[in-house]
Specification:
The protein is mainly beta and 136 residues long. The protein contains no helices and 13 strands. This is Endosialidase.
Length: 136
């Protein structure tokens, strides 16, 4: 897997890929239409952030490359890669319990608060990691 050179792209399977953790300075792409949403991505070595219709969707510190990001009514799934371990925050539903799986292994259940944000730590070590978050 490699960084997303275009910053944000639609995949043939209906998912999206975004982020470039190799950029030395912040780059952004706005007004990307996908699935009826207007997407915006900001990315570089320190942070990657995705918004849909001006609403928070994804953020990682430091920056990451995300492929095959898919949102459903029950949660999200994606593959993530970076140069270092990352703290990932996802915009989910308020006051909802989610099962978190990293590389197919359960990390347990996590509950969002009033803001709907869910934070997970991912050990990347230069290898792609799959993340799946589904409502319990």
């Amino acid at each position: 897997m490699a960084v997303v050179e275009q910053l944000l792209r639609a995949e043939a399977d209906g998912t999206i890929s975004f982020g470039n953790y190799e950029l030395p300075s912040k780059s952004k792409l706005e007004d990307f239409k996908h699935g009826g949403d207007l997407l915006k991505v900001k990315t570089f070595k320190d942070i990657t952030r995705l918004e849909a219709n001006d609403m928070f969707v994804y953020e990682s510190v430091p920056g990451t490359a995300v492929t095959h990001f898919k949102e459903t009514e029950k949660g999200v799934a994606f593959t993530v890669e970076g140069n270092a371990d990352a703290q990932i925050t996802l915009g989910m539903e308020d006051n909802t319990e989610y099962n978190v799986l990293i590389n197919g292994s359960s990390e347990g259940k996590m509950t969002t608060g009033l803001g709907g944000k869910l934070s997970i730590s991912v050990e990347l070590s230069g290898k792609p990691v799959t993340v799946q978050v589904e409502e319990s």
